What does this fold into?
Amino acid sequence: MQEPSKSRRIPCLVITASGELYGEDTPENRELARRIRACVNACEGIPTEELERGIIRDMRRVLEMAVPLLTEQKKSA
It folds into this structure.
């Protein structure tokens, strides 16, 4: 995760369950709301405790190892 710059303002906004954005309407806040909505949708069904323990990071690590092996196996077939 990137460290926020000191000159960067912390966004102050609220996103409703339906995806509505309340707060300062800026392109940055809209992009942040879009990213949060995408993360929530992508993690649907994964328990919060698993997310907090880093299951997404672990899954990415496994995929980074598995995809090249599967790609090579497919080429050999």
Summary: The two ends are 39 Å apart (CA to CA). Residues 49-77 form one domain. The chain has a mean pLDDT of 85.
